[in-house]
Design goal:
Number of domains: 3
CATH superfamily of the largest domain: Type I PLP-dependent aspartate aminotransferase-like (Major domain)
Shape: globular
Radius of gyration: 24 Å
CATH class of the largest domain: Alpha Beta
Structural class: alpha/beta
CATH architecture of the largest domain: 3-Layer(aba) Sandwich
Mean pLDDT: 91
InterPro entries: Aromatic_deC, PyrdxlP-dep_de-COase, PyrdxlP-dep_Trfase, PyrdxlP-dep_Trfase_major, PyrdxlP-dep_Trfase_small, Pyridoxal-P_BS
Distance between the termini: 60 Å
Pfam families: Pyridoxal_deC
Number of strands: 7
Cofactor: pyridoxal 5'-phosphate
Largest sheet: 7 strands, mixed
Strand order of the largest sheet: 1-7-6-5-4-2-3
GO molecular function: L-tryptophan decarboxylase activity; pyridoxal phosphate binding
Protein name: Tyrosine decarboxylase
Amino acid sequence: MENLKAMDAEQLRENAHKMVDFIADYYNNIETFPVLSQVEPGYLQKLLPDSAPVQPESLQTVLQEIETKILPGVTHWQSPDYFAYFPSNSSVAGFLGEMLSAGINMVGFSWITSPAATELEMIVLDWLANLLNLPHHFLSKGPGGGAIQGTASEALLVVLLASRDKVLREVGKDALGSLVVYGSDQTHSSLQKACQIAGVHPENLRLLRTEACNEYALSPESLTDAISHDVASGLIPLFLCATVGTTSSTAVDPLLALGKITKKYGIWFHVDAAYAGSACICPEYRHHLNGIEEADSFNMNCHKWFLTNFDCSALWIKDRNTLIQSLSTNPEYLKNKASQGSTVIDYKDWQIPLGRRFRSLKLWMVLRLYGVENLQSYIRNHIKLAQQFEQLLAQDSRFEVLSGKYILRFVVGAPLTEQRHITAAWRLFQEAASSLLETRLP
């Protein structure tokens, strides 16, 4: 085999064709793999050598080992029979965008390092903001704007840091121990981790209890009571994380009512729509974002339900200066005329790391190659499939849809899922129930 050069156009062409064929074959055969890996911990250590090869090996040899040693240890998130967690969508458009991003391989931490990367990100997030009918202050031409983060956890962390620093500039750094953060018992665990990183005391994180009668949404009354108690105790209410589509129960918090409370007390209001935000491009589901105009920040994961390969989490902020003041660093080696002139966006000041990938390419390609109507149809079809699963469940008297106890969590979201996969999954549930209850299938 001819040794691979660091980068050679013809070698790239030849080997990339082989890799694309391998990936396409994987998708053609994905239903033949068990969704959940069947290996035991430490299996791979027994199959691979203890050190890297001294001499180069062929791509074909590596691909064969991927097929025989790596794929058996993969949980196949793109399988049409995958119904766990939330979806992590891939698509042809997302893959092509990811491929192009890897090919260009730039590090776009500031405008000058690759102007197209910064400006495309601004444009594509404005497109998406308009699809979601977000208020003007979240657009790049307003006082805020959007930035692509790696995950919703990163998005939540940076806005929590911005809110913390904003308040501490006003009341003094010694008040850190008095800051209080609010969420619900359905809020994603990333809020707890963000508080740990931001220095918020664990005892000052309020995860307020929700009830089945409110469909597990955060009660404005519970929030008001908690805030009033904290203020009376001499604490400083800092931050509320509301959710549109919680992980455990897909609860939707009442944004408008919660937003008015946060405004009254001067609390930063963040809305996490990592999962369900995608559905809000459909007019019939946009009402779940009613009240978003009250929010200081908002995030949605395009890599969950928007056909954009992981990772791509869109974050919008009402006032970009709060984020920049908290996260900006300007050593001499990063200074340049454009940045010093304050005429451009430098996304290094909107995130934790310095380096950043050209993520906007894949989101741009998803929007262009599918178009809004096809994306809406994709989401509506998944909702239809979920409704069909509920209908199947209703036909078997041994099952019921419950609130309060979650017996079964079933999420439709994989790109290849069809009605036959829903039906097959339901038969597995019935067989398991029959085994447990020693009854026959209806």
